[in-house]
Amino acid sequence: MANSKNYNNLSQVEPSLESQDYYSDEAFEAELKHVWYKNWIYAGRDSELARQGDFKSLRIGSQNLLLVKNAQGEIKGFHNTCRHRGSELCSEEQGNLKSKTISCPYHRWTYSLDGELIRTPNLIRTDDFQPADYSLYPVSVKRWKGSLFVNLDKSEIHSFDSSLDPSPNHLDSWPLEELVLAHSYETKILCNWKIFWENFVECYHCPGIHKSLCDMVPIYQRTFVSKQDEHGWEKHQNDGDPRFCGGLKHGAKSWTTDGQLQGIQFSDLTTNEIQAGYTYLQSLPSVFIVAHADYVRTVSLLPDGPETISLKADWLLAKESLDLEQFDLSKIVDFGVEILKEDAEVCELNQRGVKSLAHKQGVLMPQEYDVVNFHRWLKSQFHA
Ligand code: FES
Ligand SMILES: [Fe+2]
């Protein structure tokens, strides 16, 4: 069958990954090394570290990191490991270092918020020990539109800009930097991190799993993500029917329980962005951002092990929206949490089933073209 121009879907089925890649320790360790320790990983909002001495810790695989705000207002990243004999420095998840120093609880070596070793109690001097040689191990931190990313790879083989898909300026119409964190939702999902992404990038599952979402975004009922997912899509390109051209159902303006705006519509959105109703940006392997007309949601994940992820969703709004008299945050949050729970359930089903001794490898159907793209990206990480 001849394909339409720019037709997205696959013209043939493709093999999925081997089943053991979703649960074996070996695969997980290799992915930590080549993917999670090499890429820019989402680390939250910079508003979480508002004052000098504020800190948060972050675990990526076996690596424990510490982010702190220094006297100049910069956010510094370090391995959460003392340079003396390697003790963990900070065991709390979040807080403020009242002393404005980082003190190791073991032998009390003390570091400045910039990571320099500034105190070594009971030190017996020797000629060969220079404190300047024992600063904390640094970790790269990038602030981007109010969000923080860290990178464990000192050589930064992946540039930050190249990690934002489709492009760093894709959400320029949204005032991301100024938005405030209105709500967070955290959960553990018992699935491999790749199962989460595979599920996220396809809508083959949408009609059976996401009733409210499919009502809001009619093209999803048809298992398509964009109009070009359909063979012969050119026939419908001027239809204006959201079942064919995508976007929200007629009359809806935002992903909320009643489809209406809850916050103030962002003022710089283009007509296309308003009509689309949702704009996605992702940064593999740790976060996707969905921007709507009146709010933005970030969904980030960290791998706890081969078969568990920690998921966090943050809802970001303009401060003025939160102050509106009729503002009802639950209309925004409930809609998103329902989708997250529906996805979590099928991700866990997938994880449990994939361990069957009989199941060596799955098969990807035409609508799952973006799962193939995800697998290509994954393979490319091992050759970077
Ligand atoms: S391990 Fe930190 S001071 Fe000894
Ligand atoms: Fe889904």
Automatic annotation (TrEMBL):
Residues 41-150 form the Rieske domain. Keywords: 2Fe-2S, Iron, Iron-sulfur, Metal-binding, Oxidoreductase. GO terms for molecular function: 2 iron, 2 sulfur cluster binding; iron ion binding; oxidoreductase activity. Its cofactor is Fe cation. Gene3D superfamilies: Naphthalene 1,2-dioxygenase Alpha Subunit, Chain A, domain 1 (3.90.380.10), Rieske [2Fe-2S] iron-sulphur domain (2.102.10.10). Signal peptide: none annotated. It comes from the Bacteria. This is Ring-hydroxylating oxygenase subunit alpha. It comes from OM182 bacterium MED-G28. The lineage of its organism: Bacteria, Pseudomonadati, Pseudomonadota, Gammaproteobacteria, OMG group.
